[in-house]
Design goal:
This protein is of the alpha/beta class. Helix content is about 45%, strand content about 15%. The chain is built from ten helices and eight strands. Helix 5 crosses helix 6. Bound molecules: pyridoxal-5'-phosphate. Pyridoxal-5'-phosphate binds next to strand 8 and helix 10.
């Protein structure tokens, strides 16, 4: 079994190879290491190896490990990549550095209020339900461009990009291409797309942020 540092180096190499092969754009692809379900002890070797950008999908779970890790390591950037309930918005604004899952007006308004209250203007991504899946979070693709505009003008949020999770089992490329087209129309620069199984495809379609979990941490229990 390769060490955490070896796995990290391998993924960073693959990201860089894909970026060179398919770019530009972008000139840089950010690896978001998805540490959900793994405890602080499992995360530390990645921090020791130099990784600083991590993703978590639950506020409560992130609260149980990241304050402790931030004491030991400087420069951590924590992304919320899971659905956010408005009653957890205050805690999320205090804990995370980037919110990737803004997908409705009520949440956008509450986040704005909580950011104002905390004096912390976080960059956010709008999550798009790119496969129009009933059970999945995200704004509908047809509403995404207008929603980004409303997040900026009505809610005063700093929208930096779009995020999506394509339907499982379908080839992801066309969904990534669709998200990239929406980002151009919405005039946002960043694209959070691609996971362990498809991050190279996502980079070919212009991903600026790839969210990689199991390829780094191993299978989740
Ligand atoms: C779990 C998760 C990932 C990472 O998935 P892997 O297949 O383990 O790389 C990425 N994005 C989101 C939103 C997730 O919930």
């Amino acid at each position: 079994m390769p060490t955490a540092a070896e796995r990290l180096e391998n993924i960073i190499d693959r990201i860089e190879t894909a970026r060179r092969r398919f770019g530009p754009p972008p000139d840089r692809v950010q690896l978001v290491a998805v540490s959900k379900t793994f405890d602080a002890a499992a995360i530390r070797p990645f921090l020791d190896a130099g990784q600083r950008v991590f993703g978590e999908n639950r506020v409560q779970e992130a609260q149980s490990k990241w304050p402790e890790l931030r004491v030991s390591y400087d420069g951590i950037e924590l992304h919320l990549i899971g659905p956010l309930q408005t009653n957890k918005a205050r805690e999320a604004v205090a804990l995370f550095d980037v919110i990737q899952t803004v997908d409705r007006d009520k949440l956008a308004g509450v986040l704005r209020a909580e950011m104002g209250r905390a004096g912390r203007q976080l960059p956010v991504f709008v999550q798009v339900n790119i496969g129009r899946e009933e059970q999945k979070a995200g704004i509908a693709p047809l509403e995404a461009v207008e929603f980004v505009a409303r997040c900026r003008s009505v809610h005063g949020l700093d929208v930096v990009g779009l995020m999506c999770i394509p339907p499982e089992g379908d080839p992801a490329g066309p969904y990534f291409a669709h998200l990239a087209a929406l980002a151009r129309d919405a005039k946002v620069e960043k694209l959070s797309m691609g996971m362990s199984n498809d991050f190279e495809t996502a980079i070919a379609m212009g991903a600026t942020h790839v969210r990689v979990g199991s390829a780094l941490f191993g299978a989740r229990g």
